[in-house]
Amino acid sequence: MELVLKPHDDENVVKAVAKKRRTKVEHIEPRPEDFPTRVQTPWKIGAHVSAAGGVENAIVNAAKLGATAFALFLKSQRKWTGPPLKAESISLFRKRLEAFGYAPSDVLPHGNYLVNLGNPDEEKREKSYECFVDELKRCEQLGLVYYNFHPGSTVGLASVEDSLAHVANCINRAHKETERIVIVIENMAGAGNVIGGKFEELAAIIFGVEIKSRVGVCLDTCHMFAAGYDIRTEEVQQFDTIVGLKYLREMHLNDSKTPCGSKKDRHDNLGMGQLGLPAFAHIVTDKRTQGIPLIIETPSHDVEDIWRAEIATLHALAADGGQAQTLEDGGAAVREAVKAAGKLSGKARKKRTRAVDSDAEDEFD
């Protein structure tokens, strides 16, 4: 028998479908006990994770990797502006941070790639400054401690000294517009007109900052090596002499595809580049690097197992003091993870590979 819908029946069906579409899927909050147990040592080790869908998701993505610290972008790193943080995201971020056992000082927000506080053009520098301060205020909304950024470039139109002074002046202005955030300057590889490749340049910026308790340095191992500091053989004594270890607030742990002094910022996976795994074992067994975020930014090919293997290796080295067997096993685990990622089909791999090699040193204008 054929079913005939009367007009009011058809209307009821439409209403029922509309109601179903409006019904939200029940939110299930992630539980820390459902994630891998994180190795706890005095060294805070993690990766730069995705914050897609909301900054609160970065915490979950870090926990999945077994990370005890993490970095994230607070908005698109290649756009000047972005939508404000949602109240719900801010609340969830703070709640998850506590629930998953991360301290605010374990988090390292990374600044926008377009910002150039060293630009001699006042209008362009002001545009950078507005983006810069917006991100600082986002950090404070989330209750965080640090904000890491690239110092910028002379763009070939100013002296290095003038650009360094511009950066220091912008930091001084930003301190007056914010309450507590510590602004952390990242060292660079020294390519072209980019400033911050030499320790003396970092020291010059700090010298010009008025509130020195709210400024620091993030040392990137690949950048240091590319800039000519051979950290395979040299202690951090040179940095301590020129800048001061008290300003070391964070580190980026990246191997280098290019040799020492190349001025090329090309990140490689731990133990697979020119630096080698023993250099990183030294870092995660040095008491001077305890308690600060140690963040990897190595190529992941969008495969979590690579970062998971690298983080596990660093945790193991920190836990046992860098034993030879751990170096061997850890290196093998990283190579295997990278090899597995390399088995992706050519087209899929090209699409999924994330360009973390260059830290956008040539994007300043």
From TrEMBL:
Q: Which domain of life is it from?
A: Eukaryota
Q: Which UniProt keywords apply?
A: Endonuclease, Hydrolase, Nuclease
Q: What is this protein called?
A: AP endonuclease
Source species: Artomyces pyxidatus
Lineage, broadest ranks: Eukaryota, Fungi, Dikarya, Basidiomycota, Agaricomycotina
